[in-house]
Amino acid sequence: MNVKIGPHQWDLYQQLIIPGLQRRDAGFIETLQRNYQLEFESDLPRFISPQTQLMILAGRHDQIVGFQQQLELGERVKNSTVVLLQNAGHNLFIDEEMKTAGYFKGFLQQLVVK
């Protein structure tokens, strides 16, 4: 799950990930893992207006979603920006906390300016 392992990342994992794992719907997760693609996922580009700004942050070592799928989605959606964080996995907000926050903040500021 995580690429960077240290006391800070472990604390974040315990605060942010474990509570969600404890509350998960095991049946839903099992079904999702058998057939990962959500039924609307392939149609997503069709539902996004050409004026919509989209930023996709992906972890290079994401073993859950896979960064390739995210890159492909970015290619199909006009006005999208895809950022591939080289030292991050599925929990990129833990592996690359400052970079993730920086990209998110920059994206929001860009929306406010326009």
Which labels suit this protein?
globular; two-stranded parallel sheet; mainly alpha; 2 strands
Structure write-up:
With 114 residues, the chain is mainly α. The chain contains 7 helices and 2 strands, in the order ααααβαβαα. It has a two-stranded parallel ribbon with strand order 1-2. The longest helix is centred in the C-terminal third of the chain and has 17 residues, at 97-113. The mean pLDDT is 85.
List low-pLDDT spans: none
Number of strands: 2
> The biggest beta sheet, please?
2 strands, parallel
* Content-based structural category: mainly alpha
Shape: globular
User: How large is the share of residues in beta strands?
Assistant: 5-15%
Please trace the helix and strand order, writing H or E for each element. HHHHEHEHH
Helix content: 40-55%
Spatially, the strands of the biggest sheet line up as 1-2
Radius of gyration: 16 Å
Distance from N terminus to C terminus (CA atoms, Å) equals 36 Å
The number of distinct helices, counting runs of at least 4 residues, comes to: 7
**Mean pLDDT over all positions:** 85
Brief rundown of the structure:
The protein is mainly alpha-helical and 114 residues long. 53% of the residues lie in helices and 11% in strands.
What is this structure's SSE topology?
Blueprint: H1 7-16, H2 18-23, H3 26-34, H4 44-47, E1 54-59, H5 67-76, E2 80-85, H6 92-95, H7 97-113
Parallel strand pairs: 1-2
